[in-house]
Each structure stands twice: as structure tokens, then as C-alpha cells.
Amino acid sequence: MLKKLTQIGSSWGIIIPKATLEFLNINPVDDKVEFIVNENEIIIRKNKK
């Protein structure tokens, strides 16, 4: 899936489709996500805590 960055104030973000959140069982209101930055990639995953 290719996505463009979206400017949000002075920051940048990516809109995650509802179907993707449902597939990953992520509730955007209650769950937190973890960002892992490697050399040339960002991994976003549901925080298990």
C-alpha cells in the first residue's frame, strides 16, 4: 500500500484506513501504537502493554 504524507499543523502524518485498523485489531481511541525506526524504515505496531 502506498500512502502520501499529510501535513498536520507543523508535523506530518499518514492516514491509516479503517479497514487496516480493523484487520490489525487496533482501536484508535483506546490502543497505543509503538514506532520503531530502523535505518530506512518505520515499523508501527500495536503496543501489547
Distance between the termini: 27 Å
* Silhouette: globular
Number of contiguous helices: 1
Rg is 12 Å
| CATH topology grouping | Pemi-like Protein 1, Chain: D
| Proportion of strand residues | 35-45%
Low-confidence stretches: none
Helix-strand string: EEHEE
The CATH architecture term is Ribbon
Mean pLDDT: 94
Largest sheet: 2 strands, antiparallel
Which CATH C-level class is it? Mainly Beta
The overall number of domains is 1
From the structure above, extract its key features.
49 residues, globular, mainly beta, Pemi-like Protein 1, Chain: D
What is the strand and helix layout of this fold?
Elements: E1 6-8, E2 11-13, H1 18-23, E3 33-38, E4 41-46
Antiparallel strand pairs: 1-2, 3-4
Structure report:
The protein is mainly beta and 49 residues long. The protein has one domain: Pemi-like Protein 1, Chain: D (Ribbon). 12% of the residues lie in helices and 37% in strands. The chain has one helix at residues 18-23, and strands spanning 6-8, 11-13, 33-38, 41-46. The strands form two sheets. It has a two-stranded antiparallel ribbon. The chain has a two-stranded antiparallel ribbon with strand order 3-4. A hairpin with a 2-residue loop joins β3 and β4 (41-46). The mean pLDDT is 94.
